[in-house]
Amino acid sequence: MILTIDGPASSGKSTLALLVAREKEWSVLDSGLCYRLAGYLDHKDLLRSTMGESLSALGISFDGTTFMRDRRDISARLRTPQGDRRSSQIARSKEVREMLKSFFRDFSENTPTDGLVAEGRDMGTVVFPHAEKKIYLVADEAIREERRQKERGEPDPHLLERDRSDRERPLAPLRPAADAFLLDTTNLSAQEALQVALRVLDG
Asked: How many independent structural domains does the chain possess?
C-alpha cells in the first residue's frame, strides 16, 4: 500500500510520515530531500543516467530518509536555507522531475516493507496518482513560520514565497489531489495528526 502525504513547508509532512511509518512498520520516502540532493550536486551530471546509477557512481546510498556517503550522513548539509532555495529552483526542471519520478517509483517497487509513506509536494498528484490513500496537509502561515524557526533556529524569510512559487508553477504545482483527505494541522499535536491519519488509512 502507498500513502502519500503532500503539503506546503512546515505543515508537518515529515513528522507525520515518520510517525505513520513507525506505527505501521512501513518505509518512508522523503522526496524533498532528493530534490535537495539534486540541487546540491551538479544535476547535469545526474541527468546523464538514472538517479540510482548516478548515486552508485558517486558512492551515495539512500534509505528513504537519509543520504550516506563514505559511511557519513550528508543529509544535514541539504536541510539548509540554501538547500531550500536550490531545491525549489531545480524543481522547475522537467528533466529533473522526470528523473526523480522514475527514481521514486523504483524505490516504491523495491521497498522491503508492506507499505510506503511518500511525502512531498506532488506525491499524490503526479508521482503516485493511483496511491490507495492520500493526505494533504495545511496549516496557518504564521504557525508554519513559527515551526520552521523552531526547527532551524532562525526565521525563514522565503518560506511563504517558495510555497507560492510552487503553487503557481505550471509543472506539477503544489495542490491537493482530488481524492486527498485535507488535514489542517494548525491546532493539532503530532500525535493528534497521527490518529487522524490512521483513521484515514483504516477508512
From this structure: 1
